[in-house]
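Hey all, sorry for the wall of text incoming. These are the two entities for the joint prediction.
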Amino acid sequence: MPTFLQRLFQHRLATIGAIVLLLLVFAALFAPWLAPNDPEDVHPEAGLRGPSREFPLGQDPSGRCILSRMLYGARASLSVGFLAGVLSLGVGIVMGSLAGYFGGWVDLLIMRIAEIFMTIPQFLLVIAAVAIVGPSFTSVLVIIGLSSWTGYARVLRGEILSIKQKPFVEAARAYGSSNLRILVRHVLPNCLSPLIVMVTLNVANVILLESSLSFLGFGIQEPQASWGSILSQGRAYFQTAPHVATFPGIAIMLAVLAFNLLGDGLRDALDPKLVEGE
Amino acid sequence: MQPLLEVQGLEVSFAKRPVLRGVSFTVAPGETLGIVGESGSGKSVTALSIMGLLSWPGRVTGGRVLWHGEDVLGLPADARRRLRGSAMAMIFQEPMTCLNPVYTVQQQISEVLMLHRGMNKKEAAEAAAEYLQQVGIADPKARLRNYPHELSGGMRQRVMIAMALAGEPELLIADEPTTALDVTVQAQILDLLKRLQAETGMAMILITHDLGLVAENADRGIVMYAGEVVEDGKVDELFTAPAHPYTQGLLQSLPRWGEQQDMLYSIPGTVPRNLANITGCAFAERCPLATEKCSEPQVMHSISVTQTARCWRAQGQGGEAEWQRQGK
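and here's what came out:
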């Protein structure tokens, strides 16, 4: 029987996604060593200059090194992606567990709150909240995290409703397990695979969201770099200096695509029908 | 001797529909009680009520469940939970799905040992191997590392039994433990249960719709019909001199060796669906011997010291049952 990782890496696109992600993470982690220039060092006289030996991806309107800014921007984008993803997963697991396992009015209340969240377009909700709290790395992270738990909660609730009917849960009750023990040890571990898939897709979504916010100026603030803000600065000069907007755009696309490919592969590798068939 | 378990007039409803209508029986320490009945007669609900595992909308609406003389129905949920697994354990019909698919055999047996016997991880791992040995699994060390889906149905039921034993219960409730298994495996599992009972001295309630299993494995049996006990007696008595027409019908519908039978007898009709409006004998409409007298409420009549039946025809044979006279 192939292990989980073997099944995952049989999926060629997922493997590509995983490799791209590893490279991006590597770039973000080692940005200070990889960056050819200081990302905040301005050269007003050399604004919008194209790729050169000293500035491999050219310079932005203030003459800063685009490659260096993108490497540092990867830190912002990926860490917001991961942290907000983990935060929303955590909130989603707590809410979904309460709703699915305990049912009754707890379920009713939590699911109605989730539905209220879902009726408001997430991007609008996030912009409104950032406008109130003020834009910063932390506020963007927390607000995105707190606004995307609903998907997890709904999926988990459904999984729990089906898993808690399984005979092994009754058997666990019959040998004296408490409610909390049954939930944490017996129900949740059987519900995790769809959530793992959701996390990867959600992180892609968060990266996109953060880039959009920064593009609009509500996200990571200058002079700190973010893919979205570099792209935004390049927008005005797209006809004369296309490299400014193109490279961060490619980075966003690659990151989102890589997460989606990995998510697809995980979905196949974790498919309970395939696993049970072996 | 005080019975280990005494169920008195247990009544259970599912969303106002009665399912058990006053079930009474006792289990003595070390004894095997067989509970027989058709699907829907209330066998499993009886077991779940004793364990405290009834789930919504099922609710105990009357009666008592005495464990060593103490009513457990009134106990707080936490005290009730601690009884489960350590005082009374239960094994189920579906060995294929009763084990958690994400844990190894060792983790599952260890969990019971750590929960009820206060063992640490290392002690539990060693003890788990002994329990597997005890339930007749070859190469226990290797099997401990297996996941449930790597085991056969019979093996899984053995693991379930090992988990039940791990809490050192005084009573094991086996709800159709062999229904989902091959006939040969069935016999092995029942032999195993018998042997373990002899080794540990625990009592057992064997719930089944198979009269043959009760005949071979139980000391006493009760026959349930439509949420009531209709006959209660030693296994010899039930099989040689059944007093209730329902028990007689069940026995008659068993195939017999060496007898030429064109058609196997079957009891006409089906189990009544709504038990709320039954006032007289629930079996009357299917009973070949039914008369007007059957529409009156029926009580248990003693046939011998150990045998009672819920049918007025049994009355002449011994009078009202002992426990009912005491109750009045």
